[in-house]
Design a protein that fits this description.
Blueprint lengths: L1 H4 L16 H6 L11 H6 L51 H16 L11 H15 L3 H18 L6 H22 L7 H17 L15 H20 L9 H7 L37 H26 L4 H14 L2 H8 L3 H14 L11 H12 L9 H9 L4
GO molecular function: DNA-binding transcription factor activity, RNA polymerase II-specific; zinc ion binding
Organism: Thermothielavioides terrestris (strain ATCC 38088 / NRRL 8126) (Thielavia terrestris)
Keywords: Nucleus
Length: 414
């Protein structure tokens, strides 16, 4: 027995990890230093954090991918958005605390934010967002920036770090870098960037809608969210351009084709209630003479305006039928996010001109979107917009907003 007690435990022969994650160093085990989650933390399903920056190596393997810098300064290949595999400093931020939040946001997107995106109730779509998109982001600068920006916004909305200045700076810097790198990259779409550009557009669309929560009512009347409408309309153009410059449409296994193929925004459903052209018919009826601000002197222009309203109201009817049929929340969100993308551009022009009928139609959209108020990127935006539109309409037209106000109240937002 005495001899058995003297037998020493075998030693694990490996180099001490000086730049591994905090958990591996605390446990004194070897860390493979994989980012954003090392093998040990992944195996134990625990959070993985790095608080030490490794010294830059003398050389970098030619095939090693680096996450692009949010500042967009580590790409000398022009404005294509692709990231060069060249030796550089640690690719996130000079500040260690800033680097922590950027890595934390990247990880948070894969495990949390991705599950809240439109269509993620479907396993294939959820897998595209949580697994394929983060990999694409490592080699496409605009997607990396927008992914970090949206995930940082999610962290700010759903954690106790809302006042952390480094997280706020991470969000602001990534969002600014996303816009700066995204626009030039769209001019050079190709087969190797089209899919990532489409994913970037969707994330930007969600980000822009989430930012509507920062809007506040104006004392001088209703100010329509024209920026959101224009950005969303631009998403359609990106998808059309990507389709012509990419072979992804012929590859059903691509992540973006998984998202597109499962899209439901044009699918009609049976709600079991009032149906057809009777729904929202009052939005297309005549308005009091001098309040028909969108009226044009030319008959052809009036016909164009009438068609724009009819197409837009038809899309509202599709959404309402889906709501009444009990469609899953994230399926409804696809319809909400595609609304502004698919309505006629003339309708957006009418909203920008503050035509009363156009504002009332927009109010009906926001009322329907109140069904998704529990999602962090929707929140109380729909209810606030509905009430602001009602208050901004002339008293003679406020009856057009009776249904939206009642519907919002039924959702618990009134």
């Amino acid at each position: 027995m005495e001899a058995a007690r003297r037998i020493a435990r075998p030693r694990l022969h490996h180099k001490k990890s000086r730049t591994g994650c905090t958990r591996c160093r605390a446990r004194r085990v070897k860390c493979n230093e994989a980012k954003p989650v090392c093998n040990n933390c992944y195996r134990h399903n625990v959070p993985c954090y790095y608080d030490r920056v490794p010294r830059p190596a003398a050389t970098t393997p030619a095939n090693q991918l680096r996450p692009p810098s949010s500042s967009g300064t580590n790409d000398s290949s022009g404005d294509t958005g692709r990231t060069l595999e060249t030796p550089s400093r640690t690719p996130l931020s000079a500040s260690l605390h800033d680097a922590y939040w950027e890595l934390r946001a990247f990880h948070h997107f894969a495990v949390a934010t991705s599950e809240t995106l439109p269509g993620s109730h479907l396993p294939g779509v959820r897998k595209s967002w949580s697994e394929q998109v983060p990999v694409l982001a490592l080699s496409y600068k605009p997607l990396w920036n927008q992914l970090v920006a949206l995930s940082a916004l999610h962290l700010l909305a759903s954690s106790n770090h809302a006042e952390d200045p480094a997280l706020l700076a991470c969000r602001a810097d990534a969002h600014s870098a996303a816009l700066q790198s995204y626009r030039p990259a769209l001019g050079q779409l190709g087969p190797d960037t089209a899919e990532a550009a489409c994913f970037t557009s969707i994330l930007l669309l969600v980000d822009t809608f989430a930012s509507l929560q920062q809007r506040r009512p104006r004392l001088d009347g209703y100010d329509p969210p024209v920026h959101w409408l224009r950005v969303t309309q631009g998403t359609r153009a990106v998808f059309e351009a990507a389709e012509t410059s990419s072979g992804s449409s012929s590859n059903p296994a691509s992540g973006i084709m998984t998202v597109i193929a499962s899209s439901n925004h044009n699918q009609a459903v049976s709600s079991g209630g009032d149906s057809g052209s009777r729904e929202f018919a009052y939005l297309l009826g005549p308005l009091p003479g001098d309040l028909e601000a969108e009226a044009e002197p030319e008959p052809e222009q009036r016909r164009d305006i009438a068609r724009a309203y009819e197409e837009t109201v038809d899309r509202l009817r599709l959404i309402r039928a889906a709501v009444e049929a009990g469609e899953p929340l994230l399926a409804l969100c696809r319809r909400f996010m595609s609304f502004a993308c698919l309505v006629p551009p003339l309708f957006v022009d009418l909203v920008e001109r503050k035509a009363p009928r156009a504002l009332a139609v927009l109010g009906h959209f926001f009322a329907l979107a109140a069904c998704a108020r529990e999602l962090w990127w929707v929140g109380d935006t729909p209810a606030r917009e509905v009430h602001a539109i009602r208050d901004g309409l002339p008293p003679e037209l406020r009856h057009l907003m009776e249904w939206p106000c009642e519907f919002v109240a039924d959702q618990g937002d009134g």
